[in-house]
Amino acid sequence: MNHLIExxxxxxxxxxxxxxxxxxxxxxxxxxxxxxxxxxxxxxxLVQLGIGENQYCIDVLAIADLSxxxxxxxxxxxxxxxxxxxxxxxxxxQTLGVLPEPIFDTQLAAAFCGxxxxxxxxxxVKERLDIDLAKTQxxxxxxxxxxxxxxxxxxxDDVKYLExxxxxxxxxxxxxxxxxxxxxxxxxxxxxxxxxxxxxLAYKRLSGGGLNLIQQYTLKALAEWxxxxxxxxxxxxxxxxxxxxxxxxxxxxxxxxDKVIEMEIFGRKSAHRNAPIAVxxxxxxxxxxxxxxxRIDPFDKQDKSxxxxxxxxxxxxxxxxxxxxxxxxxxxxxxxFYRHSTSKKLLSGWRKEVVGNPLQExxxxxxx
Length: 368
Description:
By secondary structure, the chain is an alpha/beta fold. It has 3 domains: 2-194, Ribonuclease H-like superfamily/Ribonuclease H (Nucleotidyltransferase, domain 5, 2-Layer Sandwich); 199-283, HRDC domain (DNA polymerase, domain 1); 301-367, HRDC domain (DNA polymerase, domain 1, Orthogonal Bundle), CATH 1.10.150.80. Helices cover 54% and strands 10% of the residues. It has helices spanning 8-23, 67-74, 85-96, 106-111, 121-129, 149-160, 162-175, 179-186, 213-233, 237-240, 243-252, 257-263, 268-283, 301-321, 325-328, 331-340, 349-367; strands at residues 2-5, 27-35, 43-51, 54-59, 79-82, 103-105. It has a 6-stranded mixed sheet, sandwiched between helices. Helix 12 crosses helix 13 (268-283). It is flat and about 65 Å long.
């Protein structure tokens, strides 16, 4: 049965049930609905909890005190079941200040059993339970109130079948001897740096190998300023300055406000406000001794052929172990492995058991 929780008293009435689950070391299905098109941080609108035969849709925009949810998500005795957990965990952490733990991710578990790495909840429900879920509210605006009955039904469906998927997935990975692999991988979901961007480290999501030293440090300074402003104003970073414009500014390094304005990289309203800031950053950038990025030469024909062979081998390992290839490793992982003759990802943990020595032979042949 679906329940809409939109009053403080209703959420308080739910608390004893959550506490009972805690004493029993039980599990709860979880999903969220949020909006992020116009904000830096996703705006949490709804939290859905599936407990037994009941689905509780909690309207977090209508309830002032969410401490019941905060306590629930931080309760180590209750297992939280998600599908594709990372975005849900991000918005929960950014809104409530706690990272849900422990969790079980049915998408990750499915990938360990051979399903596509990005299989959606509806796709997995169809694949495993042969149930078709409605998609009518997939693009709905979850900030609008009141919520319609169709919206509530759609949101509730997102947790209605999670327990069934969890029980099947747990049985499958246990039977296939992959439980330890799964437990190793799920630990990465609890790393806070996955959900927080320090403005001082914003440059790491960019690539500046083609820039000289002063241009690289200019790009770093501009990226830090952009990230700080986006966080402060709670708007997408691209609304401050798009990536290609950021590179253009770092490359040309204009030294006057007029030069910045002539580049037309800012909007009309923000140009006169941001131009002096950009000039000041460029003029006073602190340049380090070492490059932030190294120039990467493109692969030649022989390199590409070897990498393609490595990818085919990786696909073969994935098939043999009934693991999604994207989970085992991507082309980017393989290219990095080939270029540097090592890989922290591919040569550690459960992946090393699967791909370690054979892929290293490709690198050895390259050096021979």
